[in-house]
Amino acid sequence: MIASRLVFLTAAFAGLLAAPVHAQDAPAQTDAEPGYWTNLFENTIHYTISQRGVRDEVDVHFNRDGSVSSPAGHSGQWRVEGESGSEQFCYNLTGFETGAAELTQCFDLRRMNRPRIGARWGGEFDQGHRYVAVVVEGRQLAAASP
Fold first, then answer.
1. CA–centroid distance for 105 within its chain
2. I need a surface site. Which of 1, 51, 86, 136 has the fewest CB within 10 A?
3. How far is it, in rounded angstroms, from Cα 49 to Cα 133?
4. pLDDT in tens, 83-110
5. Mind spelling out the 3-state secondary structure of the chain?
6. The whole model's pTM is what?
7. How far out from the chain centre does Cα 17 lie?
8. What confidence tier does 3 reach under pLDDT thresholds 50, 70, 90?
């Protein structure tokens, strides 16, 4: 068995069985709470990102095929890596005109629960740029204005 598994998933955050994951399925038995993945795949995460004095407003969709997309043209990939009990959800975002060309972040899945619509939290990407994120109901069709 491989000590550290790297599983590219087709959506973001779920919890079912420890069977192989297929592109159209939610991740199998992960450290995230059940229901987290469905919530992630059906809603929008609205980021306010501060980079070098510029504020970007980005609506992000984590998709079941492992991609990350936004109505404004940002894109990326997401994956789950690590062993049960210490799994990490990792993703990247590209397509920024100012600041870092790519933003990346990994965080512990065991801390992920099913966030409610309107849940808000702050964080920092690996490149040092701070953000505030909000769960917005549904999939947004247009980029948010600053």
1. 9
2. 1
3. 9
4. 988 999 999 999 988 778 899 999 998 8
5. CCCCCEECCCCCCCCCCCCCCCCCCCCCCCCCCCCHHHHHHHCEEEEEEEECCEEEEEEEEECCCCEEECCCCCEEEEEEECCCCCCEEEEEEECCCCCCCEEEEEEEHHHCCCCCCCCEEEEECCCCCEEEEEEECCCCCCCCCC
6. 0.76
7. 21
8. very low
